[in-house]
Amino acid sequence: MGPEPRMLTPSPNWYCSRSSDAGPGGLFGFAARNSVYLLQIGLGQSPFHVLGELVGHTERVSGFTFSHHVGQTNFCASSSDDGTVKIWDVDTRTVVTEHTLHQNTISALHWSPKVKDLIVSGDEKGIVICYWNNRNDSQHFFPEPRTIFCITCSPHHEDLVAIGYKDGMVVVIDISKKGDILHRLRGHDDEIHSIAWCPLLGEECLTIRPEENSDEHEIPNGKVVQQTPVTKGCYLATGSKDQTIRIWSCSRGRGVMTLKLPFLKRRGGGVDPTVKERIWLTLFWPTGQPTQLVSSCFGGELLLWDLTHSGKRKCTLFSSSSEGQNHSRIVFNLCSVQSEDKELLLSISMDRDVKCWDMTTLECCWTLPSLGGFVYSLAFSPVDMGCLAIGVGDGMIRVWNTLSIKNNHDVKTFWQGIKSKVTSLSWHPTKEGCLAFGTDDGKVGMYDTYSNKPPQISSTYHKKTVYSLAWGPPVPPISLGGDGDRPAVTLYSCAGEGIILQHNPWKLSGEAYDINKVIRDTNAIKYKLPAHTEISWKADGKIMALGNEDGSIEIFQAPNLKLICTIQQHHKLVNAIRWHHEHGTNPELSYLIASGSNNAVIYVHNLKNVIESTPESPVTITEPFRTLSGHTAKITSLAWSPHHDGRLVSACYDGTAQVWDVLREEPLCNYRGHRGRLLCVQWSPLDPDSIFSGADDFCVHKWLISMQDHTRPPQGKKSIELEKKRLSQPKPKIKKKKKLTGKVATKQEVIDVVDGEDCTKDSSLPIENGVSDQEGEEEVQEPEIPNGISSNVSKEQSSYSPISSGFEKPKIAINPKVIVPKKDLPKEKSEALAKKKKARSILPVSTALDHRSKEELHQDCLVLATVKHSKELNEDLAASLNERIHLGLFTDRTALYRMIEVEGKSHLENGHPDLFHQLMLWKGDLKGVLQAAAERGELTDQLVAMAPVAGYQMWLWTVEAFAKQLCFQDQYVKAASHLLSIHKVYEAVELLKSNHFYREAIAIAKARLRPEDPVLKDLYSSWGTILERDGHYAMAAKCYLGATSAYDAAKVLAKKGDVASLRTAAELALIAEEKELSSSFSFRCAQELLSIRNWVGAQEVLQQQECLLGQRLVFCLHELLSKHLEERQPPEWKSSSFPSYHSWAIRIESSFMERVNTVWKNTFGLETIEQSQAAFQQLRGIEYPPATGHTLSKQLLFHISHDLTLAVLSQQTASWHEVVKALLAAVTRSYDSGNFTLMQEICTLFLPKGCDHLREKLGEEPAFKSLEAFFSYGQLYDLWWNLPRTPLIQIQHVAGSVPFIGTASSSEQNELSDTSSPEATDPEALAHLSDILPQVAIRSIALEPNQRSTEKKQPTLSAYDVLISQMHADLQSSQKAITEVQETLAEMIRQHQRNQLCKTTVNSAEEGDPSVKPQLHSENPDKQSKEQVGEPVSLAELTKQLSEANKKIAGFPESIKTFPFPDVLECCLVMLHIGSQCSGYLSLEMQQQALELLQKYGKSKIYKRSHQIFCT
User: Fold this and answer.
1) What does the alpha-carbon distance between residue 1465 and residue 766 come to, in Å, rounded to a whole number?
2) Helices marked H in 1333-1365
3) What is the C-alpha separation between 1015 and 1425, in angstroms, rounded?
4) DSSP summary character for residue 688
5) What is the pLDDT of residue 480?
6) I need a surface site. Which of 20, 138, 435, 1298 has the fewest CB within 10 A?
7) What is the C-alpha to C-alpha distance for residues 864 and 869, in angstroms, rounded to an integer?
8) Residue 679 in contact with residue 374, Cβ under 8 Å?
9) CA 1472, CA 1482: separation in Å to the nearest integer?
């Protein structure tokens, strides 16, 4: 059994009465988010198989049902919150028809079991729609103005439909009678979750004792109807949130049995029976078993009720013998499927599991786990190789045993202590079962996956989302302890705030350390460190790579984190860094590091030279070893293949995963199976053909490379189609008439909704849709934990209450004050009214009392006179005075105060606190006024202005209180101004800073604080960081300059990466005397200008830097070489951009070398040997990666120009050894890239008279011999192309059976056909020459550059005897032998792994099916016979061959191995072909040497055919 694709699906949707259903033929489907996933049950060796999904709805699918009618069992229907009901063909997974008749959210759906084309649906407003899809007809009914929860059509009567409502009402309607209600079944007092009809017609199947339901017999439910054949003999069961199941008689229209859910002891903890806790009660009536009923229970248990027992009903618990097999949370739907003469029950639950039950044994057969959130992280255990850890946004970790044979979905779930989205995972490198995790709320912890203990949580939290975790050797201060006092590896976590913490796994409760401090101390860094976004340790634990927000990658050496290298390649936030594994056939590959960022390009760098040389000062790398282009959005994850050398898989926001051959820069395979943006990817550690990927579609896919149809990421229209596919996912929006079932995430935890290239990584985790999603609910309702143990009843109830209705629409909070618009009055009239309007009285109560009746006023006078003339007040007089408070104006002060108090209360009650404050001021109680106003939040500028009257301390207290009040009113600037009035400058500045008023805060700090105050610098730095994150680079640079950090200012200016920004950054760094930084920006700017062929601008930028003289010379030579190639007009050197050349680039009548020397002398002042030596030293330390066939032509030409510049400078200083090395580097670079024409041009321009003058100076040095060989190699092909051409048939006839050279090897044929020049192979040109000149003249023209042709037929190949090198042929043969052995060993290892997997499969399968073994053994007889014929060698023989070849190579001189050499056998073949086509061109001695070499070394596969032709 070979590997097969697998997947973990999204979780089934919650709180739907029928979101899953089973159909004929073992089909099962369930709604998940906005799709329906289909499973095939019980076919083949696997108990189930995921067939795929039905895609078409744009919002949450709320209902799903199969057609059970013969002839259309492949049909099903679904309803959605998008308002549509769709009819699907399961075979083609396409929509047959659909309708949008509902105007409200659809809440129930059922396909009639009696009418083959009838689909009945109901919505939240109570509308029932019957739709006949064959005739496209429909009817609307409105039985009750209530919210429908469930609908079930009768299996016995085609016109009867039972409807359950939110308030507990159940009705049975007859759709043939315009929806007349036959029965109103009253008894439940809460939501109806499920309705099930008895599978058998007739009411004789159940024995109902009258005394059981005597009350129900006496009180009829609903109206009395005549008993007709239609209404006779049918039972109906309903399940409700009120924790009861009721059996109803349709003939009598009343309840006949009530079942109350038992409170099971196994649920752990007492439950108050009076509390209606969180529950969903769903029912299933088994086929042919009218006396049995299956129901769900409180905590996810399933019960089988025996309806035959009288009295107390007996129920049996499913899976009572196996603890842990039941669901751990409430069950929503039940349905059955027939498989191999057994009835299987399928259930979906809030615990995100789909379970299958055997109705005979009541035991769980299998479980399909599912995911309730984005898949953020995947990690394979390095110890238990098959264990895949999955970090999901639903707050849980899954550990998937991918090697399990009996259960393809053997998944264990961990939830304790997480309570947040799991965004990062990392297994301990040696400790079994130790898994570290990070969450979006900054938590870092460790799980022991082999125990049930809660995780250990680090006491140090990150402030933002944890991006990545890595295990590595300890660095200070943890590394400073003794060997027994410190762990071998520590845990490193990188998060959104840009810092990396080192956690001690032995003491997670202790403090975690920021490694930035170690980096600063070790490298003496004074400038601001960039925000870190990724961390990756090399496998040997000696080197650490950090990815940064500005796109740079820094390489540090452990244990003190010495900075040895900075990679300036990406210009956007780095998302992924991965080191190549160390167990490849080539040890040098372990120095490869791949990186991906928010732009769509993946770069691979080879750090071998940097790591091995350990430079004293950090090296800056600006050229990649390999560039992998093809994706169209941000790269989110990378993974190297552990089975291959240099093979990489990448995950991208374009919705695809791409497999690359890094060394060849070739795309191999593209996977497009996800319906969302990919977030993580991992290569299977056991199967070279299997890759696991996770995305924001809530899925994990296991896919096979060999089964993919595409080789590269989609471009153009294909990319647009994928984007549409992803956009069909649920949108995080709230519709007016739609239930919100989940939380809509507003925090940009994940980046751009479409491509997000310019977002920071803090915003680079995807936004999770809450449309169907239970994830938001999961996080809010944490008390309902997926372990089957309810923690607290009151908690559960409170968390459930907001959505207890299930289908209630969300209430939108609106302003209770309704403002009615008034018509504007004419201006003149409104002004007149304003003038007439009197000011509000400050003593309205007293004034009103003085406007009473005349009698009352007279009585006031009498009371006042009595008071004035009485020495003492009696009780009656005091009471009269208290009633007439307005008289206080005329009596004593006490009475006046009482009057003022009453007036003040009146003002407050009427909403006029300002008048109350005036009264208090009149009274003289200013302090009381201020305190009262502060308590009520009613301080005003006027009161604060008068506060000094109450004293200095009171004034200070009032200003502070007023500032707090202003902050509550979001008037932060005004609050800061008032704080300044009491000299609280620091508080004012901090207030403005904390509320992001940086400009105002800086203005105040600059004006009121000392220039050297650290607060000012902190303000600049903080504002600069925020501006940088938002992409306002110029403004951020100003802030950094204000903070006297010109280094950071220049770096932030350069982040945009365009010419203008880089030029400005370089000038700024130069002004700040950061010369090294300035030169790097100038060089980058020049490269950008070079990419648009603007050499004039590039030189202007470079000339500002004295230290870049060498680069100016390179750019000069590059310009001259480009101009020369353009004049030659090969197609590959043409460009759409218009070039900008210097005047000195115009060609003059002189050799290329003379032109270069002249321009350098006249334009750049390069006259002395010392200047040439200085320029040579500047360029010598720069190394560019070797070329491949995929190297861009512009990049290739620039690298060659660099090599040629070194050659010319060495020639000026008479350093002939360096001349040869540089020329050889340029020639081999063009040779490796497959650009033969360019190699010829280089030889023509720099070696116009051949290599004789170099031989005179160097003799037979290995480097010279190699250069001479490549020169002769080019001349050899040039000669062959210019030979007189004869049709191929004639050549074969004349030469016997000698074929064309292309038949020797496919690689050679490609090289010859791809790189031959048009001048040499143009048949028209050859025909024209043959008409004018004889054949000898044509040969003379072909050889004219070397002036070697003569009229005699003498051997012209005698000058090429350098190519027939016995030693090089021997070395190349040994190298090819090693390569072949390594390939054979790799294939043997892969075959062994496949055999082991098959063996395990056979052993496990034998237990259940003995016939499997012979089938596996006879799986591929052809392959076995081929292996017998080929006589495969043993591992010992291969090891011996490898050892002998390595020993042989070690015996060659280092000088021979150091310098490249053309393929000797290839040259022999070309010479022999030339000799076979034109006699006399090959001496007998040279022919004999070529034949001998071919006979001796030409037995490998590549030369096998040619060896047979020439040597037999």
Assistant:
1) 56
2) 1335-1342
3) 81
4) T
5) 74
6) 138
7) 9
8) yes
9) 8
